[in-house]
Design brief:
- The chain has about 325 residues and is α/β, with parallel strands linked by helices.
- It folds into two domains: about 160 residues, Rossmann fold (3-Layer(aba) Sandwich), CATH 3.40.50.2020; about 140 residues, Rossmann fold (3-Layer(aba) Sandwich).
- Helices cover about 30% and strands about 25% of the residues.
- It has eight helices and 14 strands.
- A seven-stranded mixed sheet has the order 10-9-8-11-12-13-14, with helices on both faces.
- Helix 3 links the parallel strand 5 and strand 6.
- Helix 1 crosses helix 8 and helix 2 packs parallel to helix 3.
- It starts with 8 loop residues before the first strand and ends in a 9-residue tail after the last helix.
- About 40% of the residues are buried.
Length: about 325
């Protein structure tokens, strides 16, 4: 075991994405800690830690992905169990942070659920949060504990590294994602195009304007989440219509709800690249999955050893 001021490093996982947790542990040459996370007959969650964690540096890996409320409640009960078992430090590793899109009052009389979720995790007893590509950076401030905001950008940079730079353009699918797309475009030494998109209702997108030139370019739509794929396929069709030679999409979190996979397979997108921050299922021929396990493993090791995490992304 690795020693630090917080004791031995221990890694545990809930049920949301066990394969990713196993990969993370593998990168650290460790086994996952022993924990039982099951259900009582009435559906209530039953958690028991099956080894001593007293005074140890414990990392709990759990995405709050669908079924969102089940996985969130599982996480809260796990944190409470570790707190009551006298863990030295509890770091919650959330590869995908659910409810992140409810980060402000977008209309009258609606909740800010991302803040509520942050409060729940903090009050349960977490000491630190690690998460990957939050929908909005300000969510870090919703927590009253330290947050390490990790980026999946490096896995996409590696994927596109052999593409001809002079032909590339990075697409921000909406104004809110411009900063994210601009940073990726800068690292790719590529141009930037912005989509003026409106939402007449949830999960429905209409493209009004394409700000920038895509003619004869290889376009990469860069975003954090692909959910129903409505925005993604609408944007792909629009930029293809305006003369783009090929259209790729790179999204950190592949929710792919409802008939999203079918939409992608029938769309103008040549390849959709996502990460394994969410459980992987049959995604069809156009979707490729890259692993972020080494990013999360490196962050865990650096945090445990008291080294800089920001240096990972410099």
């Amino acid at each position: 075991m690795t020693k630090s001021v917080h004791g031995d490093l221990r890694i545990f996982s809930g049920n949301s994405n066990l394969p990713l947790a196993q990969k993370i542990a593998g990168h650290l040459n460790m086994d996952l800690g022993k924990i039982r996370v099951e259900r009582f007959a009435d559906g209530e969650i039953d958690v028991q830690i099956l080894e001593s964690v007293r005074a140890h540096d414990c990392y709990l890996i759990q995405s709050t992905c669908p079924p969102v409320n089940e996985n969130l409640m599982e996480l809260l009960i796990m944190v409470d169990a570790f707190k009551r078992a006298s863990a030295g430090k509890i770091t919650v590793v959330i590869p995908y942070f659910g409810y992140a899109r409810a980060d402000r009052k977008a209309a009258a009389r609606v909740p800010i659920t991302a803040k509520l979720t942050s409060n729940l995790i903090t009050k349960a007893g977490a000491d630190r949060i690690m998460t990957l590509d939050l929908h909005a950076g300000q969510i870090q401030g919703f927590f009253d504990i330290p947050v390490d905001h990790l980026r999946a950008r490096s896995v996409f940079l590696d994927y596109f590294k052999d593409f001809d730079r002079k032909d590339l353009v990075v697409i921000s699918p909406d104004v809110g994602g411009v900063e994210r797309a601009r940073k990726f475009a800068a690292r790719m030494d590529a141009g930037l195009v912005i989509i003026d998109k409106r939402r007449p209702k949830p999960n429905e997108a209409v493209v009004y304007n394409v700000i920038g030139d895509v003619k004869d370019k290889v376009a990469i739509i860069f975003d954090d989440i692909v959910d129903t794929a409505g925005t993604l396929t609408t944007v792909a069709a629009k930029i293809k219509e305006q003369g783009a030679r090929e259209v790729y999409a790179a999204c950190s979190h592949g929710l792919l709800s409802r008939n999203a996979v079918d939409k992608v397979n029938k769309s103008a997108i040549k390849k959709l690249i996502i990460t394994d921050s969410l459980p992987i299922r049959d995604l069809g021929p156009k979707t490729e999955v890259l692993s972020v396990s080494y990013i999360l493993a490196d962050a865990i090791k650096r945090n445990h050893d008291g080294r800089s995490i920001s240096d990972m992304f410099n």
